[in-house]
Design goal:
The protein is of the alpha/beta class and 294 residues long. The protein is built from 7 helices and 11 strands. The strands form 2 sheets. The chain has a 9-stranded mixed sheet with strand order 9-8-7-10-6-1-4-5-11, with helices on both faces. A two-stranded antiparallel sheet has the order 2-3. Helix 2 packs across helix 5.
Length: 294
C-alpha cells in the first residue's frame, strides 16, 4: 500500500504580526513550521504504515525553505519526501498548485498512491481548496473533515476498508466506510502527532530531498487566469464583545447588585415539566405564547 501525504509549511500563528497602522504583515518575524493539520495527516499515515506495512511519501509545493516541513514529516516517520517548485509558483493559486501535484502523481516517476492524505486547511490562508481540487484532478472519491481514521481488518482476500469519521456542523458526526484509492482531508483534531526522537531528527536532517519542476511535466501550468486571488483586507482578529447582563430595573438595589455580581444568572428561572408527549407539547406552546413568540 502506497500512501502519499501532501503537506505545506506555514507560519507559526504566534509569530504572525500585522502592523495596525499600515495593515501589512511583517514577514521577517515569521517562524515557519509544518502545518498543524498536515502534521496530523502524516501521523495518520505513519500509524497506517505501522499497522498495514505501507510506504509513506510526503510531497510539498514550495521554495527551498519549504524543505523544513518535509524534514519534520520525515522525523515523524515518513519514508521519503519530494519538493515541487518553479519560480513562477510564487503567483500560483490553490487550483494551480493542486494541478501541479496532480501532474506529478499521475506521472510515471512513482507508483500510483492508494491513499492520499492532506490537511483540510492551512493555518495561514485556510482556503481548504487544494485537497478537494486535487481529488477532482485525479478523479478520486474524497472524504473531507476527517477526525478519525481506522483501518478495518480484512477477511480473506477482501479489499481493505477504511472507516472514517467526519465532523459536521452543529456537533454532528458522520461515519463512512471507503475503499482505496481515495483522498482524505483531515482536521487538526484527528490525532496528536508524536514527538520525534533525536535519531529521527538527525536522520531527517541528513535525508536527501529531490526537487522537481512541475513545468517539466506540464508546460500549461499557471496559464489559467481564473485562479487569481485578490486580498481585499487583512487585519488581526477582532476580540469578541463581552456580554454584560443588565439587572431588572423592577428589583430593589440589593437584588440588582446581586444580579450584576452573578452576571445575571440569578434572574434566570427554569421549570421542569413532566408528562406525556402531548402534555409536554401543550406546555411548550403555552410557554411560547406567554413569551410572545406565537
Amino acid at each position: 500500500m502506497n500512501i502519499t501525504v501532501c503537506v505545506r509549511q506555514t507560519p507559526d500563528s504566534s509569530s504572525v504580526y500585522i502592523d495596525p497602522i499600515s495593515g501589512q504583515v511583517d514577514y521577517e518575524r515569521f517562524v515557519q513550521v509544518l502545518n498543524a493539520a498536515d502534521a496530523c495527516a502524516v501521523e495518520a499515515a505513519v500509524r497506517l504504515k505501522e499497522q498495514l506495512g505501507a510506504k509513506v511519501t510526503v510531497i510539498t509545493f514550495g521554495p527551498q525553505d519549504a524543505a523544513g516541513a518535509l524534514r519534520a514529516a520525515l522525523a515523524i516517520g515518513a519514508d521519503s519526501a519530494l519538493r515541487l517548485w518553479n519560480a513562477q509558483g510564487e503567483t500560483w493559486g490553490p487550483f494551480t498548485v493542486a494541478s501541479a501535484l496532480a501532474v506529478y502523481l499521475q506521472s510515471d516517476t512513482l507508483p500510483a498512491p492508494d491513499l492520499i492524505l492532506c490537511g483540510d486547511a492551512a493555518s495561514d490562508w485556510s482556503s481548504g481548496i487544494v485537497g478537494p481540487a486535487l481529488a477532482e484532478q485525479l478523479h478520486l472519491p474524497q472524504v473531507t473533515g476527517a477526525i478519525h481514521i481506522e483501518a478495518q481488518p480484512r477477511e480473506g482476500n477482501a479489499a481493505m476498508n477504511l472507516r472514517v469519521t467526519r465532523k459536521l456542523e452543529r456537533g454532528y458526526r458522520e461515519i463512512l466506510e471507503a475503499q482505496p484509492p481515495l483522498l482524505i482531508s483531515v482536521t487538526s483534531n484527528l490525532n496528536e502527532p508524536r514527538y520525534p526522537s533525536l535519531p529521527a531528527h538527525l536522520a531527517s536532517l541528513a535525508a536527501s530531498i529531490p526537487v522537481i519542476d512541475p513545468l517539466s511535466l506540464d508546460i500549461t501550468l499557471g496559464q489559467d487566469a481564473t485562479d487569481a486571488i485578490t486580498i481585499i483586507e487583512m487585519h488581526t482578529p477582532r476580540p469578541l464583545p463581552r456580554r454584560i447582563s443588565a439587572p431588572d430595573s423592577h428589583h430593589s438595589a440589593f437584588e440588582r447588585i446581586g444580579e450584576i455580581v452573578a452576571g445575571g444568572a440569578t434572574g434566570r428561572q427554569t421549570k421542569l415539566v413532566e408528562g406525556s408527549p402531548a402534555e409536554l407539547a401543550q406546555a411548550l406552546v403555552e410557554f411560547l405564547r406567554a413569551k410572545g413568540f406565537i
